[in-house]
Write a structure and sequence with these properties.
18 strands, five-stranded antiparallel sheet, single chain, nine-stranded mixed sheet, alpha+beta, 580 residues, 13 helices
Length: 580
């Protein structure tokens, strides 16, 4: 199952630590391994139809147990895996097996799955049976008819009552016998209405009983299905006994007991990296580095680009990997390293009420869960200890640079937030896209409306969802196209710098697009998703690790903001050009 490289690798240094799987640049060995896996996949013609719809693959660089003191090529190899199953099977010769093969024909999962499928079929049969549908329709029609009959009877009662009242008023000297007659008439009519109401109620109850007979059986079957599914899921997840480098074993239920959701999500344990690590531990192979890449079209809601490398997902994999990586020396999360600690925060505008700062790429707007992390908020709270309120009026992604509006008082903060809420504040961003936007799809100017929401299984990624997403609107204008990107210091990006050209092999073009964005709403990652999504521009922002590929930075800068001063009422227009 271990594959040895076709090309010489002795010139490549081994990684000092294992890859931090949630934020990484693929090690050169991983890139070489991935290219070999891509070649293998491309030659499997029988898979192409399924793979066209997209699948995640992974590679794990491993060292055999005799490769402790040197780097001989026959001691360094790689394992390959795919997420989920492939063409209806979990087992394929080139790839590591699953942690547990739930598709084995004689296994408990397939047997119980067939039982649950049989329940589903029975539910559908009952729900679509002519007897059930006929009873429901008859009950519906009869209910409508009864309502009309009783309404008519009520109307006649009211008319008769009104006639009696008119008679009493027009003939004040009615005899006792006539008065008694009117009373008897009223009592008779009310009794007749009650008799009519009771008669129809009984008829409806009979029809409802027929419908209820089906409903009870359908509900019983659904309850049985739910109970059997839950028991099956639990039994299944207990079969996923995950190893770590220390030889410890935990099943998925034990692993997820400490998480917010408590129960493993569907598909947990079936992603590429857990499969790879499990196989390595079982066969005494030392994991050195990992990488995962996407093959095929992007999913409808998420953003995935063919051939791009992606971090492991948070919802399914993070709890599992926290266990499986114990015993390995793992790289630190690079996002935790303060990159601007020694730099002074640039203030673009300031008065006694507010200020606008130029947030550098790589700095947080607010500290978030890690209260001690460097952020604009921390810097300004220290600089202005007398300031009241939350100070930070809006946020920029950590990777985004540009203008950030800050209030020195609670009242000014409330006013500025109200301006954001009613969309009177105008913002402009400049970005460089990693590729060319096809003009026949979008034109040089346009408007993107794709509703966004958090992907709960892969935080902090956002996804497009018409069902759960909130309105997100972006207008844009394409400025220029180029084969060259320069910064303020005229650093050119080419094969010799930090853009990973090994990933470029999947692109037909190495061109870039300079673009201006005008966000009309302020959703998380709005510009990044609208740029990268196939229904948006279909072209990610350069350096976008979440929705595109890594570069030396995310090429997105908030260069202009326009707002009404909360105290003076003047319109302030503030601009700070990007340094790229």
């Amino acid at each position: 199952m271990i594959h040895f490289f076709k090309k010489p690798i002795s010139h490549l240094a081994l990684p000092e630590k294992f890859t931090y799987p949630f934020h990484y640049t693929p090690h050169p060995l991983c890139v070489l391994a991935a290219e070999e896996v891509k070649e293998y996949i491309a030659n499997r013609k029988e898979w192409q139809e399924e793979l066209a719809s997209g699948k995640m693959f992974g590679v794990l660089i491993v060292q055999t147990d005799n490769g402790i003191t040197n780097n001989e090529e026959n001691q360094i190899g790689y394992l390959a895996a795919f997420s989920g199953n492939l063409v209806g099977k979990n087992l394929h010769p080139y790839f590591v097996p699953p942690v547990y093969d739930l598709l084995q024909p004689e296994g408990f999962f397939k047997i119980e799955e067939e039982q649950i499928s049989a329940i589903n079929i029975r539910i559908r049969e009952l729900e679509n049976s002519s007897s059930y549908l006929g009873s429901k329709e008859k009950w519906k029609i009869e209910t409508k008819h009864v309502k009309a009959v009783l309404n008519q009877a009520k109307a006649e009662l009211k008319m008769a009552k009104k006639a009696r009242e008119i008679r009493r008023q027009s003939s004040p000297e009615l005899s006792e016998e006539e008065q008694a007659s009117l009373i008897r008439e009223s009592q008779y009519q009310k009794a007749e209405y009650k008799r009519l109401e009771k008669e129809w109620k009984k008829r409806l109850e009979e029809l409802e009983t027929e419908v209820r007979h089906f409903d009870i059986e359908i509900e019983r079957l659904k309850t049985e299905r739910k109970e059997r599914s839950a028991a099956l899921q639990r039994k299944l997840f207990e079969q996923f006994r995950m190893l770590n480098a220390q030889g410890e074993v935990k099943d998925l239920y034990t692993i997820f007991e400490q998480t917010v959701q408590k129960v493993p999500p569907a598909g947990a344990g079936e992603c590429a990296l857990p499969k790879l690590l499990q196989y390595a531990y079982l066969h005494q192979l030392k994991p050195l580095a990992m990488a995962e890449f996407w093959w095929g079209d992007s999913p409808k809601n998420e953003i995935r680009h063919h051939g791009y490398y992606y971090p492991s997902c948070k919802g399914k994999c993070e709890p599992i990997l926290q266990h499986m990586l114990q015993g390995l020396e793992v790289d630190e999360n690079p996002l935790l390293n303060p990159v601007h600690e020694e730099e002074e925060l640039e203030i673009v505008f300031e008065d006694e009420w507010l200020l606008v700062v130029n947030k550098p790429a790589g700095m947080l707007s607010v500290p978030g869960k890690a209260e001690d992390r460097d952020s604009v908020y921390h810097r300004l709270k220290k600089k202005y200890p007398e300031a009241t309120g939350p100070m930070i009026v809006h946020r920029l992604d950590m990777a985004t640079s540009g203008l950030l509006l800050v209030a020195k008082t609670k009242e000014v903060h409330q006013d500025l937030q109200a301006q954001f809420a009613n969309r009177s504040i105008k913002k402009r961003y400049v970005a460089v896209l990693d590729g060319i936007v096809l003009p026949e799809r979008t034109g040089n100017t346009g408007r993107i409306e794709l509703p966004l929401c958090l992907n709960p299984l892969d935080r902090p990624r956002q996804m497009v969802s018409s069902e759960h997403g909130k309105e997100a609107i972006t207008e844009y204008q394409i400025i220029s196209e180029s084969e060259r990107i320069t910064s303020a210091s005229e650093n050119t990006f080419n094969e010799s710098n930090r853009i990973d050209e090994s990933e470029r092999s999947i692109n037909e073009s190495r061109k870039y697009t300079r673009i201006v964005f005008y966000p009309l709403t302020g959703r998380t990652h709005q510009l990044r998703v609208h740029a990268a999504h196939p229904e948006g521009l279909g072209c990610p922002i350069l350096g976008d690790e979440l929705y595109g590929k890594k570069a030396d930075r995310l090429y997105l800068h908030a260069e202009y903001i326009e707002f009404r001063h909360p105290i003076y009422g003047d319109i302030l227009c503030i601009q700070k050009e990007a340094d790229f």
